[in-house]
Specification:
292 residues; alpha+beta; six-stranded antiparallel β-sheet; 6 helices; 12 strands; 21% strand
Length: 292
């Protein structure tokens, strides 16, 4: 399977792995920033929740190839084990007591834009934030070409300073919330391409796509090259954390796009995106392999 196609040009995810939970774990690993997360292999069974999730009242569950679901921690164990019987699962901390605050940061970034077009809250309103300068985005920019691609990065805030306010509605992307520090904000996910889930986020992304002239041949050619490097980093990460690694194809000649196949038993059909074969945990800024 080729890493990236140059004809026709493509501004979305270059391979399915870029649109999977593997991208989340890779981002958390290289940036050291993200919510407490457990990537659990299919067939795993939990007798109790990991202690790292005890402080959270709500968790996010993502089964393979499906959208995320927010569930109460008190009800999660039975549903989690049921899902693990037929799928790999990503289990993540979401919020303490009340709703988490979500902010979408669209790219390409424009740090000099006084109108701050890059920041859109979950309700669609513009926000004067500095999340575009978040240290995790600076690290991620070494691997992701934010200048020639479009999409958005999602940040989450599950901190106590929001959830413990008394007598107030939880500030779910409230425009009057001032951000004084990056410490409470963590990377949640990233999507490449034009978003369709929100008209406001879609408009912001399209405005940036046009103003930065991302559809010119020069920009698209640069994007193809950077996509190839991004995918190679991601596939190498997946291979490093698999019992049965991804292997480079034999037919890749000099100058050709590198491609990968998944080693498997004859007659066994694997999903387009490989299931994890090891249980992984991201916590306290580091990724580790765990036994449950």
């Amino acid at each position: 399977r080729t890493v990236s196609s140059s004809s026709p040009f493509h501004i979305g995810p270059p391979v399915p792995e870029v649109n999977s939970v593997w991208l989340k774990m890779w981002m958390y690993h290289i940036t050291g920033c993200g919510p407490v997360s457990f990537l659990l292999a299919k067939g795993t069974r939990l007798l109790h929740l990991p202690p790292e999730l005890y402080p959270y009242d709500r968790l996010m569950i993502t089964t393979w190839g499906h959208e995320s679901t927010i569930v109460n921690t008190s009800n999660v164990l039975m549903a989690l084990n049921e899902a693990l019987s037929h799928s790999a699962v990503l289990l993540q901390a979401y919020s303490k007591r009340n709703e988490a605050e979500i902010v979408y940061v669209t790219f390409p970034f424009d740090k000099t834009d006084d109108n701050d077009l890059n920041h859109v809250d979950e309700e669609g309103g513009s926000k004067k934030l500095d999340l575009v300068n978040h240290p995790s985005l600076l690290k991620l920019s070494s691997f992701v070409d934010f200048d020639h691609s479009c999409g958005y990065v999602t940040f989450i805030n599950s901190s106590k300073q929001f959830s413990e306010r008394q007598g107030e509605s939880p500030p779910i992307c409230s425009s009057n919330v001032e951000i004084n520090s990056f410490e409470d904000w963590q990377l949640l996910d990233m999507y490449l391409g034009v978003p369709l889930f929100s008209s406001e986020v879609n408009k912001h992304t399209c405005d940036l796509l046009l103003s930065r002239k991302l559809c010119t041949e020069q920009s698209l050619t640069a994007l193809t090259d950077s996509h190839r490097q991004l995918v190679l980093h991601l596939l190498d990460f997946i291979s490093e954390h698999q019992v049965v690694p991804l292997a480079e194809d034999d037919y890749c000649g000099p100058g050709e796009a590198r491609s990968f196949v998944c080693q498997q038993m004859p007659g066994v059909n694997l999903p387009p995106v490989p299931y994890p074969t090891r249980n992984l945990m991201f916590s306290t800024n580091s990724l580790t392999e765990i036994t449950v």
